[in-house]
Amino acid sequence: MDLVPALEEPLRQPLKSVLGPATAKVMAEHLGLLTVGDLLHHYPRRYEERGQLTHLADLPMDEHVTVVAQVADARLHTFASAKAPRGKGQRLEVTITDGSGRLQLVFFGAGVHKPHKELLPGTRAMFAGKVSVFNRRLQLAHPAYELLRGDPEESVETWAGALIPIYPATAKLESWKIGKAIQTVLPTAQEAVDPLPDTLRQGRGLVPLPEALLKIHRPHTKADIEDARSRLKWDEAFVLQVALARRRHADAQLPAVPRKPAPDGLLTAFDARLPFTLTDGQQRVSREIFDDLATDHPMHRLLQGEVGSGKTMVALRAMLAVVDAGGQAAMLAPTEVLAQQHHRSIVEMMGELAEGGMLGGSEQATKVVLLTGSMGTAARRHALLDLTTGEAGIVIGTHALIEDKVQFHDLGLVVVDEQHRFGVEQRDALRGKGKQPPHLLVMTATPIPRTVAMTVFGDLETSVLDQLPAGRSPIASHVVPAADKPHFLSRAWERVREEVENGHQAYVVCPRIGDEEDDPKKAGRKKAPQPPEDAAEKRPPLAVLEVADQLSKGPLQGLRVEVLHGRMHPDDKDAVMRRFAAGETHVLVATTVIEVGVNVPNATAMVIMDADRFGVSQLHQLRGRVGRGSAPGLCLLVTEMPEASPARQRLGAVAATLDGFELSRIDLEQRREGDVLGQAQSGARTSLRMLAVIEDEEIIAEARQEATAVVAADPELTGLPGLRTALDALLDEEREQYLDKG
C-alpha cells in the first residue's frame, strides 16, 4: 500500500530476481503479488502454535487447507491395479491427529517412499492439500508437508509455543514457501514510509509501520500480533477513507443550481391528492433531501430502505420539487420491466398532474415520459423532443437515457434506482447532461450495514427508511426441503392453489431460463454420472420454461400460468406484466427479472425453486414482491440441499427474520469482504487485507472522521508525502473505478 523504491522492486526481474523466477511467476499469476511491497502486505490468515493444534473437525470440503498436526500411525499397503497387476502397487495411509479430530493422508506409487521414511508416529508437521471425502472420511491425497523440527538450541517450551504464520496459499505454492519468501524480503520493511500522520498515530497509540510489518510476519507473542493488526487495520481504513473524503471534498466544490419547490406548486398539489399520510421516516428523509436540494452545490445522497418502505414515493416528491423549481428530473432504472413499472405507477400516483399540456391536465401539471431502447422511432422522437423543450419535467428510462442524442432543457436531479446495477461511467454520463452538475439521489433496496455504506458509498451522505408504510402485511417464510420431505413440496403447490382460490396470485421463481442459449459452452456436452449426494449440487439449476410446463400439466393444472424472463421481447414482457397486474394470470413463473420494483399488491405467495442458488440479500429482495397489499404474504424456499449444509443454514436465516439489515450482515459474513466492495472483478489485489467491514465498524467510523479532518485542512495532502504514496498505490486504475461506484 505504501510502496517506495525498495518496496517497489519487482519480485520477478531478469537480472536480479528477489525470488526464484518460478516462485515469482506463481505469486504474480495466482496471488497478484508483483512487488516486494505487495509481498510484505500479504498477511498471515492465522497463526498456529506448535503445541496447540488446529481443529481437524472443522475442515471445509474442496478447499485448499494448511494444518499442523501429529502423525498417529502410518501403514503401507500393497495392491493390484491396471498399472501394477502383480500386486506391486503401493499406498501409504497416514493418520494425523490434533486431539479434536483425525484426518487420513494418502500417498500412492513412487510418491510413498519419502513420506514413509519421514512421517513416523509422533512426528509433527504442517500439511497442505485439498480436502476430499473417500469412503465417507475426510482425507488429503498427496499433501505437501513440512516437518516441524525444533532448533537443537531451543527449549521444548519455546518450540511448542512458537507461532507459525499460515498464509493465504494456492495449490501451486504452499503457505510455508510463501513464509520463506517473506522472510527473505522482511528486512526491507524498515524502509516502508508511514502513511499515517504522526499526530494521529501517536494519539491512538499505534506502532510505526515497519514495526507492524515485522510483528505481523514474525510475532514472538500474541500481543505482537494484536499490535500489528490494530496498526494495519488503521492503515487500510484511513487510506480508503481519505480517498473517499477527497472525492466528497471535490464534489462539494462543484456549483449547482439550488432547487426550492414553489409554495403552491406541483408538490403541494400532489401532496394534497395523496390518499394516505407519509410515514415519519418518509417525512424525515424528504426533509433531508429538500435541505440538500436547496444548496448551491450538488446533493450526493444514498437512500436505502427495506423492500416496500416507500422509497419511490420519496424520490417522486424530490423530482416534483425540482420540477416546481423550473428544472427536470431523470430516473434511471436497471431494466425495461422496472422502467415501465415505475412510469406506470408514477403516472397513476400523479393523475391529472402528469398530463401537462393536455386537455384535462391540471394547471400545475407536467409531462412524465418513458425512454427505453426498444421504443418505436416515432414514440422515441416524441419523447426526445419533450425533453429538449422542457415540456417533460420527469423522464424515466433505462441506459437509453445516457445516449448522446438525449438532450435536456435543464436537468436538475438524477435519481438512480438500484445503484449496484450501474457503473460510474453510466451515472456520470447522465449527470454530464446538466448545464451545471445536477443533484444526485441513489436508491437501493438492498440494506447495507452502516460500515459497508461508509466504505463502499463513502462519498455519499446516507438516509435510511426503516419503517414500512401502514397497510403492508407481514410475510411468513418457510424452508421446503424437497429431497428429505417430498410431501412438503406437494403441500407448497396446494398452498399456491389455495391462494388463487381466495382470489390472489403467486410467483414461482427459478434460477435459469431453460432455453438452449442459457449456457452455450455447456450445450451438447455430455455429463458424467454423479453420486446421489452430489446430485442436488451438480444438476443444472431448475429452469423457468421447464418448471412452467410441469406445473401447467401437473400440480397447477387448470390455472393460468405464464412465464417472464430477460430474453423475451420487451413488448411481450410488458404484456405479461400488464396481464399479471390486471389479475388475468394466476401464476407467474419468472427469473429474478422480478427482483426489484415489481409491484402487484394482489400477489400473495412466492415459491422460490432451488433457493440455495440465490444469495441471502437476493432472496430477501425477491420475497419483498409479496405481501404488498392488505393480505398476508407467504414465501416458500424450496431446496434439495441436506439439512446440515451451510446452504440450508443460510435459508433458515432468511426464513427466520424479515430484517434486511440483519440479513445483509449474515450475507457479508458468509462472503469475502472483497466481493462486497465490488472488488471481485479486480483480481486478488483487493485493498482490504486486514480490515473486516463488519467487525471493525468502530475503526472505520473513526477513520472517516480523521480522514475528513485531514482533507479539510490539506485537500492536496502536500504535507503528508507518505499518505500520498499510499493513495497512489491504492488508486491504481482498477481501484479508481471501484471507488467511483460511490
Structure in words:
- With 742 residues, the protein is of the alpha/beta class.
- The radius of gyration is 30 Å and the shape is globular.
- The protein starts with a helix and ends with a helix.
- The strands form four sheets. Strands 11-12-10-13-14-9-15 form a seven-stranded parallel sheet, sandwiched between helices. Strands 16-21-20-17-19-18 form a six-stranded parallel sheet, with helices on both faces. It has a five-stranded mixed barrel with strand order 2-3-4-6-5.
- It contains 27 helices and 21 strands.
- The C terminus is likely disordered.
How helical, in percent, are the residues? 25-40%
Cα distance, first to last residue? 21 Å
Please tell me the overall pLDDT: 82
Tell the overall outline: globular
Query: Which structural class do you get from the secondary structure elements?
Result: alpha/beta
The major beta sheet can be summarized as: 7 strands, parallel
The count of helical stretches stands at: 27
User: Taking Cα atoms only, what radius of gyration do you get, to the nearest Å?
Assistant: 30 Å
E-strand count: 21
Which strand order do you get reading across the main beta sheet? 11-12-10-13-14-9-15
Low-confidence stretches: 520-536, 672-686, 733-742
Strand content: 15-25%
